[in-house]
Design brief:
Elements: H1 17-27, H2 34-73, H3 79-117, H4 126-152, H5 159-169, H6 171-180, E1 188-192, H7 203-209, H8 212-225, H9 233-245, E2 257-259, H10 260-266, E3 284-288, H11 322-334
Antiparallel strand pairs: 1-2, 1-3
Length: 349
């Protein structure tokens, strides 16, 4: 057996160096050992816990600050009150910075763990950094709107519960990292529904998994169990949407199996804010083989995902401070997740 001291890699013109090295790594069977991929899953779960704790401390601190401000507002006009209001403005700016920093750090780290979960330990590429930045900015707009909720008291869901949902949303980054770890044309994954006791089954997840028939039957069964056995107007709307989605549900084979490159172009994963269940999703992605049967007649790979039951952002329904709410809403739309190809250059943070 002879030893090889060096290998010369010829990179064709027009091919990026990092892409060439990645192709060589894959060709040699390069993949993290199973034990390290298992650790990545544990680390991802830990990151969610740390994120929830840090974000909760930021929000709790701002809640306490606003309570103190209420006491200040009871004081008569004067220098002391003016100083307190100036402190409030600085505290508001600090809190906003903390929120943005928190989201950017944890979103990046979760994306990395998602890649490791799929066996890749390479650093984030430029397009991946841009996607992380987009999603962190998108979700931060909703979190910053929550600061306005705290200031005005105009909200219905408890703050503690909302913090938990933001922790759930972090899971989307894990699945994106899992997908972008290997975009080989022969790699496939399956969308697996797993609502569980604390999860939420929704029409969009049923569509992605190819389970709209079962979803509709469960919906009708719940209606039949109620007094009178009639479906509500909302349920009728959902059932009609489910019927419309049957023709393309579950991808080309109708089973929830997708080529990875197709799924990243659809720009949707479990826990995505684009889903009807939003961040209360309990679905997951699993490595899968390409189905042996031919795709269903007339089915092609899909473009960007569009929900069968589009939601109205709750910030758009608030009555108080509408200008602030509208600004956050516009920014959330601007930073909505979309696939970014490797040729796209990121905008500096």
């Amino acid at each position: 057996m002879c030893a090889i001291d060096a290998v010369r890699l010829h990179i064709p013109e027009g091919v990026a160096e990092d892409e060439a090295w990645e192709a060589l790594w894959k060709a040699m069977g390069g993949k993290l050992p199973k034990r390290e991929r298992d650790v990545a899953g544990i680390e991802a779960e830990a990151l969610q816990g740390y994120f929830r704790q840090e974000f909760r401390h930021i929000i709790d601190g701002y809640v306490d600050h606003c309570r103190m401000l209420e006491l200040v507002n009871l004081q008569p006009e004067g220098q002391a009150r003016d100083e307190a209001l100036a402190i409030h403005k600085r505290q508001r700016n600090r809190t906003e910075w903390q929120v943005r920093s928190c989201f950017n750090r944890y979103y990046r780290d979760m994306f990395v763990q998602g890649k490791r979960l799929a066996g890749s330990d390479r650093k984030l590429a430029k397009n991946e950094r841009e996607m992380v930045r987009r999603l962190a900015n998108n979700e931060a707009q909703f979190a910053l709107n929550m600061l306005v909720d705290i200031e005005t008291g105009e909200y219905t869901m408890p703050i503690e519960q909302r913090v938990e949902l933001y922790g759930n949303a972090l899971e989307e980054m894990k699945w994106l990292g899992f997908l972008y770890a290997d975009l080989s044309p022969d790699r496939y994954v399956k969308w697996v529904m797993n609502s569980g006791p604390d999860g939420e089954e929704c029409i969009d997840c049923a569509y992605m998994a190819g389970k709209l028939g079962a979803f509709a039957r469960k919906l009708r069964a719940r209606a039949n169990a109620r007094k009178g056995g009639e479906t509500t107007a909302h349920e009728d709307t959902i059932l009609r949407a489910a019927e419309r989605g049957r023709a393309t549900q579950g991808g080309r084979w109708g089973t929830g199996v997708y080529r990875v490159s197709e799924l990243v172009r659809m720009a949707v994963t479990p826990q995505s804010g684009k889903l009807a269940c939003c961040t209360n999703c309990r679905c997951k992605l699993q490595e899968a083989r390409k189905p042996q049967t031919a795709p269903k007649a007339g089915r092609r790979e899909q473009g960007e995902f569009v929900s069968l039951a589009p939601k109205i952002k709750t910030m758009d329904n608030r009555a108080l401070r509408p200008k602030d709410r509208q600004r956050y809403s516009r920014l959330a739309d601007k930073w909505a997740h979309e696939h970014v190809g490797r040729a796209d250059e990121p905008i500096p943070v």
